[in-house]
Amino acid sequence: MHEDHLTKALVAKNLRIYAAVTTALTDEARRRHELTPTAVAALGRTMTGALLLAANMKNDEALTVKFAGDGPLKSVTADATPKGVVRGYVGNPQADLPLTAAGKLAVGDAVGKGTVSVTRFTGLKEPITGSAAITDGEIANDLTHYLYISEQTPSSVGLGVLVERDRTVAAAGGFFVQPLPGADDSLLATVENNLQHFGNVSAVINDGADAAAIISKLAAGLPDIEILATTPLAFRCQCSRVRIEDMLIALNEDDLRSLIADGKAEVCCRFCGEKYQFSADDLQMFLSVKQKAAKIKSQAAPA
User: Fold this and answer.
1) Burial of 4 (0-12, 13-18, 19+ CB in 10 A)
2) Rounded to whole angstroms, how far apart are CA atoms 199 and 171?
3) Does residue 303 register a pLDDT over 60?
4) Angle, to 10 degrees, between the axis of helix 37-54 and the axis of helix 140-149?
5) Mean of the per-residue pLDDT values for the chain?
6) Distance in angstroms (rounded) separating the CA atoms of residues 149 and 161
7) Where would a tag sit more exposed on the chain, N or C end, judged by fewer CB atoms within 10 A?
8) What is the pTM of this model?
9) How does DSSP classify residue 239?
10) Residue of 7, 13, 1, 3 lying closest to 180 (CA atoms)
11) Neighbours of 180 (CB within 10 A)
12) What would you measure as the largest C-alpha separation in the chain, in angstroms?
């Protein structure tokens, strides 16, 4: 099985194709959040989609994809960067539904109707957010629809997660196809035909395909496949004990005293499931730091 990676290619000088294998990072999310098969399929697809969209950004930028639906999952959120780092969570990790009549995981019903939004953090003062209505909740179709409606970019997104009987992830990944201005009708017709005959992307990955092989399959019959870059991918969170300490110090004094009275505190990161434990002595120290900082600030204030 291939390690997780994302490959970017330019085909026939007028077609952008990105493909990703995300099996390990999707299984890492499953393990950390104790996800049901339906939940891991939804989150795996969303994280893969976020990585594919982020791949077209600059290195110091990032984006967040969020599905806010009325289904039992409640929400599905993923943060990704063009450096290949992603993290994510679902609102209700234990939500699960019976398989569909076709024997597929019922991701669409679990997500439900609502809104998909993409927030791009580009270094500007305010992030840029676009949104569109969720079409079927299957994630890939919704991102394709979002790109067309909100960003006026005709594209095709394919995503898949294959879950074993023991709930581990056997294969996960996806692709992003976008014609550039100047793409002629014959090129578009060939790509459309390839997309129709591509099949399920997770099955293709489970059969041994890497990202380059996915691109070759999507670009069959087209000339000039130029591989631009390949990036390793990983599930990684920005949380840390220091960040959580800063968050606790930022609480008001009454809340800190209440935690001290409880004798301890546990903070769980919603993005990665990491748990941070703090003793009463830790919390008392945070209160002292907060009080000392407030005293210094008051003494420095002009009379």
Assistant:
1) buried
2) 14
3) no
4) 40
5) 94
6) 26
7) C
8) 0.91
9) -
10) 13
11) 13
12) 78
